Structure formats: structure tokens, C-alpha cells
Amino acid sequence: MDAPFMAVKWTRSAAIALILALAACAQAPQPAPQPAPDTTQAPSPTAPGPIPGSATADESGFATDTSRESVTAQREMVTAANPVAADAALAILRRGGNAIDAAIAAQAMLTLVEPQSSGIGGGGFLMHFNGKTGAISAYDGREAAPRATTENDFMDGTGQALPRDRYRVGGLSAAVPGTLRLLEMAHKAHGKLPWHALFEPAIARARAGFKVSPRLHRSIADDRYLREYAGARAYLLDAGGAPLAVGTVLRNPALAETLTLVAERGADAFYSGTIANDIAAAVREDTARPGKMTAADVTAYKGKKRRQVCGPYRTWLVCGAAPPTAGGVTTLMTLALLERFDIGKLRPNSAEAVHLFAEAMRVANADRLRYVADPDFVEVPLAGMLNPRYLTRRSAMIDATTAMRHASPGNIPVAQRRTMLLAPSEDAESPSTTHLNVIDRDGNAVAMTASVGGAFGSRLLVHGFFLNNHATDFSAVPRTESGRPKVNRAEGGKRPRSAQSPTLVFDGSGRLVLAVGSPGGPRIIAFVLKTIIAVLDWNMDIQAAIALPNRAVDGDVIVLERGTELEAMMEPLRAMGHEVRLRGLTSGLHGIAIKDGVIRGGADPRREGVARGD
Fold first, then answer.
1. 403 phi and psi angles, rounded to 5 deg
2. β pairing state of 316-320 and 309-313
3. Percent of the chain with pLDDT over 90
4. 600, containing H or E segment
5. Under 8 Å CB-to-CB from 233, ≥6 apart: which residues?
6. What residues have CB less than 8 Å from 559, skipping those under 6 apart?
7. Are 487 and 372 contacting, i.e. CB atoms less than 8 angstroms apart?
8. Residue 552 and residue 585 in contact, taking contact as beta carbons nearer than 8 Å
9. Which candidate, 41, 230, 419, 504, has a CA 20 to 30 Å from the CA of 601?
10. What is the dihedral angle through the alpha carbons of 98, 140, 279, 203, rounded to the nearest 10 degrees?
11. 304-306/461-462 β-pairing
12. Where are any strands of DSSP class E within 274-315?
């Protein structure tokens, strides 16, 4: 359901009350977004100057330049994970296309130039804002398990989970792709240019070829599974079996043909006929790790329009995607838990700021792992999770100076007895993902996160694209030792839980001020939250907010980005009672912020993304 912003201002209490009322009335308990809370002059992002930090290295060993400045524009902006994809999207905008059109062109191109992260063989979530009507729409293109899937598919004969290399790649790992159905739904509702025109840049580039980037080269070199699969090996390794060198011109005529069929016949060309048959055959005929997908599974896949999740944060309204991603609700919960603290007065990289961030995330994560899964299979109590009284009680668990060490899920009422008996599911999502944002000259906006799962997904190359490995985002061990079923266990037709967090933020008059998202597997939520807080509470420029050192929570452990000034916070945080570790937290954040009519775009210096605008 779309949620329009009306040309009036609402009080904060009215906004909260309406969120809860509509959530309670929904057939599936998913709260609809409401008009923004009252504010006569909502704070907006400003550029405070350089952010203290240092050049860091991502997990691929590439230097991270934290001195990059945001890109400004007056009319339209694209941020995407590869310059070729961003250029394709901007070209569509210059031809008169809108935000949805540009997003489709970017994702088609990313299938070609960033195959390790996303593509038409994967899935994702898309948030859309209509600049004319104020309507917000949320689209779910998350992959679905084959109908023959059982909860024990990733178990061995002794009741233990299979070794990771037995189920994280190959046919067993693949779920039915959703990206093209997602894009087609969004285009039918909001697109402007003809569908076929949006694939022309990617088709032309697939035929002419593109230069292998440093990141793609490194992804190939770091992957030990590609050489096990003939199609992937022939495409990404040279005649001697070495990773394609940086600058190698890589052509993909098979993908050009696939995209041509999709351009001419729509998504049905992918979900039926030869392509659907060959997807299923590749999955089932994988001799090492056969899966259960059939052509009928592919044909039956449907994209879904979900009731988006929105809630107030101070003087703003934050909107995200609904389950089966946990990104939207966990983002809102964490912000609500932090709201009683004056975060804006803390230094961004201080131990106090990291402590509060981690404590709030720990509490929200406990509920995420217990309650969130595919809402078509379990009741997700979003109204209860976002209830202000409940969140006030949960926030009271947070002490400003002392770690709680562990947070258990709260007791949230659910109507379905089956859901009451479910147990929390551990995180399983892989980090290879992409995020893009678009704002067009009419004020329409898109925030889209898409993925093939792990790097190159299942490693199965079909008709020029890689199939995802998102079936393995379900709990590998489906039940607790006592036999209690886990909320995110595998079931036929079910969509695995995700942390993807495409997010839109509005001021008190319903004006868009921020579009943001990131790759990162279960850490996506932390990366996005860091950026939202940096822009809203610390008044940072969007590029500085993205470059700010990452911080995340893995279970009961705080994880700090290695090679940044956060390293100096390890001992102060340990003194508060935290367990702390350093990691190469390679996000892929992209964001667009708007202030005083100026559009500012930021791209993560940890990867090769860019912002482009006019």
C-alpha cells in the first residue's frame, strides 16, 4: 500500500498513534508509514568540515580515501556501486526517464559489471517516493525457496549442518530469482520511458565489453569456488586459469541475448520458456550439489508490494522495507531506543557514542532474530515491535556507561500459536550485495538494495548471469536441541530473512532529506544506521557520514573498523564491559541527501562506487 504525505503537519503523538492503529488493522501486522511528526523547522544535513579519520583498507586490500567530497547537483542524482552503472542511469535521466527508469538501467548494467554482488539472477528490495503525490511504495523481490525445499536440506545424516562448502555454493544454494519481477512491478506502477529502452545501455555494453575493474579482479582472485564450475571458469579465468587481469575487456554476448529477450518480451521471457528451463536444469543437474528447483518454481515466482515500515525519529520520519527483510523494522527500533539519549552532543567516534549505538542494536537485534521472517509463513508482530511503550521499556535496559553484555528478545504478543512456539534464528546472510539511489528532476526517489548472496552467488552461470545462493540464508540447523522450530528455517516457497535496508528519510513537512542503503550481510543495518545518525544527529555531509568509521554488533561483540581512529576506543569500551574486536568492515554505502534545494551524493570510499548528477 502506498502512503502519501499530505500537505499538513502532524504532531508526533498523532503520527505514532496512527502508525499503531493502521498496523493493528492490517491483515498482516505491518505498520503503514504515516505523515511526519510536527516540526516548524526540521534540522537538515549540513557540512561541518572534515571528519577525523585515516586512510583505511577494505577486505580486498584497497586503500580507502576518506577525504572524498560529496557530489552536488541541482536537478537529479544517481549513486551506484560502479561508474559504468551510474553513467547508464544518468543517461536515462537525461533522456527524460525518471527514478525508476534509471534504477532499472543501473541494475541491468550491474548484472554485467558487478556480477559478484547483484544481478538478474538474484533479488532485492526497493523503496519508491513519488515527488508529486508524496506516496511511498515498497517492493519485495526477495528470492523464494523451491517448493520441494524441506527444513533439513542443509543437514547431513547425523543431524548436523553440512560443511559450508557443501551447501553455500552450487544448485543446493540457489533460490528462485526475484529481481526482474521486482523491477517490472515498479516500472508498471511508476516508470516513464518504455521498458525496452532501459536495457539498451547494458545490452550494448555486454556486446562491446567492459574493462575488468580492480574490485572485480580481486573478487575473482579471492574466490576458490569459481574454478569448480565450467561456465564461471570460462568466463572469469584466463586460458591459464588465472583471474582476469585488471583492464581486460570482458564481453558477455549471452547476457546481451538474455537482456534483449527481456527488453522485448518483459520479465516473462526470463520466468518462462528456455531461460526458466535452463535455470532449473542448472540447479538440478549440478553433480556436486544438486538442488530441487523446477521450471514451475521459476514460472510461479511473483514480486510483492509490501506495506512499508515507517516511524518517527526526533523531528524526522524514517521509512524502510518490510519483512522478509528485517532492515526496516530493526532500523526503526534502534533509532527509537536511542532517542532518549542526546546523541548529537557526543563525538561520532567516541567510546560513549559507540557504546550507546551497540547497546541499542543489541536489544533490537534480539527481537529481529526472534520474530522476523517471511510474513507469508509466520506472523511478524511489527505493531508490537514498534509500540512506543514497548520500546520505552526496552530502552530502559540501556545504561549510558555500562554494557549489558547480552540482550534477550522481548515478550511481544503474537496471535498465531505456531509463531509463539518458534525460536530465534541465527544470522546467515552473505555480504555480497549492492545498493543504488536515484533522485530525478521531479523529486521522485528510489532506494534499492539487491544481491546475489555470496560473491558470484551460487557460481552457476546461466545465460550470462549468475544465480544467487540465497537459499542458504535460511537457518542451516532448523530446530533447537529441544526440537523447537526456528523462525527462519527453510520451507518450500518461503523467502529467507534479510537485513537489506533501503531507507528514505523525510522532514516534518514530508520533504525527502535522505536516501541511503548498503551491502554488508547482517551488518547492513549497522552501516545504514551509522550513516543516518551521522547525517541527522551529527549534521554531517553525506559523503563524510558514509566515510565515518564503521561500527557493528555481531551477537554480543562490538566490531570496530580496522585501521580507523575507532581502534583507540577498544580499551575504553572494554572498560565499560564490552567484548570488542577489529575487522575490515567493508560497507558499500551509497546515499543522497537534500538540503536547501541542493542534492548531495556520496559513495563509499571502501569500494568503487560513485555519485553522478546534473
1. -75, 145
2. antiparallel
3. 83
4. strand 598-603
5. 226, 227, 241
6. 523, 551, 552, 553, 580, 581, 582, 583, 585
7. yes
8. yes
9. 41
10. 10
11. unpaired
12. 304-306, 309-313
**C-alpha span between 37 and 49 (Å, rounded):** 29
What is the three-class DSSP state of 613? Answer: strand
pLDDT of residue 415: 75
The pLDDT of residue 573: 98
Q: For the chain, what is the mean pLDDT?
A: 90
**Non-local CB neighbours of 2 within 8 Å, separated by 6+ positions:** 130, 135, 136, 137
CA distances (Å), origin 211, targets 111, 208, 248: 14, 10, 5
From residue 524, alpha-carbon distances to 194, 549, 592 in Å are: 33, 14, 17
Sign of the Cα torsion 111, 116, 118, 122 reads positive
The length of the chain is 614
State in Å, rounded, how far the first CA of the chain is from the last one.
Answer: 32
Total Cβ atoms within 10 A of residue 151: 18
Binning pLDDT at 50, 70 and 90, where does residue 109 land?
Answer: very high
Identity of the residue numbered 279: I
* Overall pTM > 0.85: yes
Give residue 186's identity as a one-letter amino acid code: A
Grid cell of 195 as nine digits: 521498458
Residue-wise pLDDT tens digits, 27-82: 333 333 333 332 222 222 222 222 233 333 333 333 345 567 899 999 999 999 99
Q: What is the pLDDT confidence band of residue 371, given thresholds at 50, 70 and 90?
A: very high
